[in-house]
Amino acid sequence: MNKISIKIAALFLIIFLSLKISVAQDVHYSQMYNTPLYINPALTGNHECDFRAGANFRQQAASFTVPFETYTAWGDGRLYPGFLSRRSWIGLGGHFYYDNAGDGELKKIQGMGFFSFSQGFNSDNSLYGSLGVGVGVTNRSIDMTKLIFDNQWDPINLEFNPDLSTGEPLSTNSIFYFDFNLGIMVHQLVSEKLQYEVGASISHINRPQESFFGEPNKVGMKYIVHGDVEWLLSSRILLQPAVYFIFQENVTETNIGANLVFGATSVKLLAGLWTRVGRDIIPTLGIEYSSLNLMFSYDVNISQQHAASNYRGGFEISLVKRFCYSSRKSTKREPCKFLEF
To answer: Which of 44, 88, 120, 307 sits CB 3.0–4.6 Å from 93 for a disulfide?
Structure first.
């Protein structure tokens, strides 16, 4: 790894880590490497093929409450407009996100579009940086009829009566707001056997108002710093370690682990072990065939909640398909360089 790449990567991380960490928590994924646009807008269009599409499903907390369920569908690709140089390109993408949590069906529905600009830093474009933005609309809603409040206790009949007033000063059960995200990323193909990426992102930069009671309640900005390495151990074995640091509302989350990919012609088998530090141990299994990747993971809960969860966390499924049309060796049509496996 040369001195230029180290300085660029360090500079990007210092800029984001020096920002003040604000105080709301979003949902989290265990397979964060399979939700790239959700992690960082700068990852839009930055992959080894022309286009990719994915879908994710996550269920958690099913062992001690109504399950929390999250669905995401996304896609992104690259374009090479004529007004850009051979060492520059843009990425376009979008995702649709749906989350349903708890007895009151607290829902979050979001549609977001993403744009990124990438620029090569050296002659063969094996080192490049990207800046990405995401802009979208979010809806939050809740079904109060599915919740029970102390004001609905009938002391005469000694039972809950859903026809009684909740006593909650709810001004609305559905709100909409605009959301804005920003991210940066550096990628380098160091050799034929090694590449890395480091990046950082900020979500909810505009601090949108989110309250069903008409009170001032701004969504806290979320900061993610991430890094991953792909190391070709042999012609058939690829190691993919990564780390993700997440900060939001004075809460931190660290995901760290690695996947091992075993390649055999067009079929690849994947196995990995990850941890959400202090909370979950996450084994993963997957298979890839003709650029179609299917992965399963399960969170084994080891936090203080394990007394209620009995070590059961949540399972997650992801499906990602890559579409490659142009030659990966052509710097005119595909200026970015990726590890070939």
So the answer is: 44
Specify the pTM: 0.83
42 φ, ψ to 5°? -70, -15
Q: How many CB atoms neighbour CB 222 within 10 A?
A: 21
State the Cα–Cα distance between residues 183 and 43, nearest whole angstrom. Answer: 8
Stronger pLDDT, 55 or 67, i.e. the higher one: 55
Q: Which of 26, 69, 17, 19 is nearest to 208 (CA)?
A: 26
8 A C-beta contact, residue 41 and residue 116 = yes
Statement: 3-323 belongs to CATH 2.130.10.150: no
For every residue of 233-281, DSSP letters joined together read EETTEEEEEEEEEEEETTEEEEEEEEEEEEEETTEEEEEEEEEETTTEE
CB 63 within 8 A of CB 281: no
> Rounded mean pLDDT of 140-148?
77
Task: Fill in the amino acid letter for 96.
Answer: F
**pLDDT per position as a tens digit, 160-196:** 766 766 666 667 788 999 999 999 999 999 998 999 9
Q: Are 154 and 164 in contact (CB under 8 A)?
A: yes
Name every residue whose Cβ is closer than 8 Å to that of residue 281 and which is 6 or more positions away in sequence. 273, 274, 275, 299, 300, 302
Half-sphere exposure of 64 (CA within 13 A, CB side): 10
297: closest CA among 279, 275, 278?
275
Please give the C-alpha separations between residue 150 and each of 64, 154, 160, 165, 300, in angstroms, as whole numbers. Answer: 21, 9, 8, 10, 34
Interval 78-111: pLDDT, tens: 998 888 888 889 999 999 999 987 666 788 999 9
Q: How far apart are alpha carbons 149 and 312 in whole angstroms?
A: 28
- Token readout for 19 is 């920002």
Residue 238: the pLDDT is: 95
